Amino acid sequence: MTNSNGLFRKKTLEMILADTESEQYKLKKSLTAIDLVALGIGAIIGTGIFVITGVAAAEHAGPAIILSFVLAGLACAFAAISYAEFASMFPIAGSTYSYSYVALGEIFAWIIGWDLILEYVFALPAIALGWSGYFTNLLASIGINIPDWAAHSAWQGPGGLINLPAIGILLLVAALVYIGTRESATVNNIAVAFKVFVVLFFIVVAVWHVKPVNWHPFMPYGWKGIFTGAAIVFFAYIGFDAVSTAAEETKNPARDLPIGILGSLGISTILYIAVAAILTGVVSYARLNDPAPVAKALNIIGLNWARGLVSIGALTGITTVLLVMTYGSTRIIFAMSRDGLLPPAFSKLHPKFRTPTLAIYLIAIATSLVAGFLPIGIIAELVNIGTMLAFVLVSISVIVLRYTQPDLPRKFRAPGVPWTPLLAIIFVGALMASLPWETWVRLIVWLIIGLIIYFSYGRHHSKLAQQKQQLK
Question: Where are the transmembrane segments (predicted)?
């Protein structure tokens, strides 16, 4: 029975399954387990491994950045187990938003949906600016110089006007997502294979140049630095949750979604730890405060010829992150619109491609404007706290549903409930506590804006509210 009492009314499993079969909202099922693992790796391995590793080591953790990756990986692993259970139960677009609607009620679903929009929409411009930096540097290395006015905005550097490369890549990625899921997945699979090759290339080539003396002192900033480093490199893991947004377009979601979520996180964690260990072994951590630390390490050990390959790998890696995050953000908006919490135009599908047209337009325009003209100095921390909040709510939802609806079919059961999700809450909560208070204030302001929209529009237009009105 649906709880239709105001803010805490809930959707049922039957409602969710009916939504996925409705011809008006039916997405094309074309993804396999391999596609989902590649989708997860595509979202995870990018800016984190090619940029953030060096900065976090230099400023926060030193060689103990390895432990920061382990801590962040553990926090994500516990959360991923909860995601896997929900994804196998509810094969629907919307990820945490949809799970919260069933377990906790409409107001929590809105909060987490609005929070996910924060995660995706603000992460995309920040990542696009990283892509732009690598792209302009790569062109400069072959004698092609983009003028300052076109390479960054006035807020991003002197002489700037607009960041055309960042806008260009965001629009290109949006076009790929627009023409279809299968086409996007094929491009992503090829790109993921190449960037994993580049990461393995760095590991194999650089491991012979490791000097153990560079690992001393191992913890120059103490445990506080390790936890702060973990909170920052958490950004490097954002993406595995995007796999769950592809549930409705997966051929066998009950089997393939847990494989995609846990498989992509496991592979990425191993690669992160290996790169962090080798990077800090090749170069003193103090010298890694560089926007391209992997390329810098290769230059220091005399392999300057390999820098071009790494730059291309970084561009490829960051492109796949943009692709998967654009995909995920449009599916969140689609799901919220289908439930009536956002205007119905955002869930209207293209008659041929079966993709949410207006949602893709909205993401493309909003992210392009931010990336093209505005500074993105605080985005990583803001995106991190938004994602951490999503992980905490998923973990709470698993515990709640185990007790309130124990008979729901679970194709994948998270082991050790309630302890496993409780560990996720503890680990992620500790990382959230490591973030600056200013980040908390920004999150609260964003949530207040969202609540204003919900109480002025979503609460009255939601499908559950409309059903309640019809019963009167």
Answer: 36-58, 64-86, 107-131, 161-180, 192-210, 222-240, 261-285, 305-328, 358-379, 385-404, 416-433, 439-457
Backbone angles phi, psi at 302, to 5 degrees: 85, 15
Tokens representing residue 351 in the block: 């008659």
Predicted pLDDT at 217:
92
Query: Could you tell me the two tokens for 150?
Result: 């076109």
Q: Is the dihedral of CA 101, 107, 108, 114 positive or negative?
A: positive
Asked if residue 170 lies in contact with residue 322, where contact means CB atoms within 8 angstroms, the answer is yes
CA nearest neighbour of 42 among 265, 250, 253, 229: 265
Highest mean pLDDT: which range of 155-159, 197-201, 214-218: 214-218
Mean pLDDT check: name the lowest of 35-49, 160-174, 217-231.
Answer: 35-49
Average pLDDT taken over every residue of the chain: 83
Class of residue 12 by CB neighbours under 10 A (exposed 0-12, middle 13-18, buried 19+): middle
SS3 readout for 311-354: HHHHHHHHHHHHHHHHHHHHHHHHHHHHCCCCCHHHHCECCCCC
* One-letter amino acid of 374: L
Q: What is the dihedral of CA 178, 316, 96, 453, to 10 degrees?
A: -60
Q: Give 67's pLDDT tier (boundaries 50, 70, 90).
A: very high
**Residue 160 carries which side chain, given as an amino acid letter?**
G
Q: Does domain 31-471 have CATH number 3.40.50.150?
A: no
Report the Cα 336 to chain-centroid distance in Å: 18
What residue segments make up the domains of the chain, in order of their start?
31-471
Of 333, 355, 328, nearest to 344 by C-alpha is 333
Query: Alpha-carbon distance 193 to 219, whole Å?
Result: 34
SS3 359: helix
Which of 33-37, 75-79, 148-152, 183-187 is least confident?
183-187
How wide is the angle at C-alpha 138 spanned by C-alphas 136 and 140, nearest 5°?
A: 70
User: 379-404 vs 106-141: helix axis angle to the nearest 10?
Assistant: 140
Separation CA 224–CA 94 (nearest Å): 35
- Average pLDDT of span 160-170: 89
Tokens found for residue 48: 């984190």
Give the relative orientation of helices 222-233 and 379-404 as an angle to the nearest 10 degrees.
80
